[in-house]
Amino acid sequence: MGRRRKFGRKLNGVLLVRKPAGLTSNAVLQQAKRLFFAEKAGHTGALDPLATGVLPLCFGEATKFSQYLLDADKVYLSTFELGVATDTADADGEVLQVCSAADIDERRVLAAMKPYLGQIAQTPPMYSAIKQNGQPLYKLARQGIKVDRAARDVTMYDYQMLDFTSGDQPQIRVRIHCSKGTYIRSLAADLGEDLGVGARVLSLHREQAGPFSDEDALDLNDLEYERGADRAEVLDHHLLPMDAPVAGLEAIKIDDDSGFYFGRGQAIMDTRVYQIGGEGDTVRVFEESGRFLGLAEITDDGCLAPKRLVVY
Questions:
Q1: Which domains does the chain possess?
Q2: In this model, does residue 210 exceed pLDDT 60?
Q3: Residue 243 annotated among the catalytic residues of the structure
Q4: pLDDT tens, residue by residue, 302-312
């Protein structure tokens, strides 16, 4: 059988989408890919269907740098409900337990939250995309199979209570700044367990992913309306440069001759490298014209060794 033919435009860049509730991250990706008629695209870390907020999408060669966003810190706003536990630890799951948590006050919640600041060991939920023996955990969970999951180290840089509403099932509004791999649903479930009443996530909004804020993100409906019956090119002005995921790295421009060899995987000697970094540092490399060539690592002998190259 021959190779599957690809359809779409060879489009390079980053699109900031504001994910709506009820859709999977992949469904959002496929809608954006259709709107832009893009041949290749990928997201930079899935959000639960219940969640909303900024979802950076990478098109074409920008997908080569999506890992930097996957590894970036995130900021979330979330509402936890105490006294209710579900199999998914959120409002989409099957209710396993309901109890009165009316005696839980703001002071007790704050005290229970405190140990979760800094580096913590967190056990991923069964309903997650983490694979065990090649099988995503959520598929096992749907079959009623529960397996042991190794705890992972994550970092909670900030964990604030923004609001507390008392009642039989108190609700707390929190703001969380955390490292990659942090599961907010596990954070809620663990807090509920520590308080002895169970808890679930009622709402989850990703406010920031790395350098990108939801204030700069675009709604799919607005993109759909803007395009209308026109060609996909009318939307291209919304795309950020393909190096946007790595914009925080230092940059260096090299002449066209050096760019030719660099683009073919050869290390380039440049005496300026130690002005922008040290051995082992990763930097962005551009031609004098401003065209982005990719990432390089500074070597011990003052060279730019290609690390991730862009193909035009």
A1: 13-71+212-238 (3.30.2350.10), 74-209 (3.30.2350.10), 249-309 (2.30.130.10)
A2: yes
A3: no
A4: 899 999 999 98
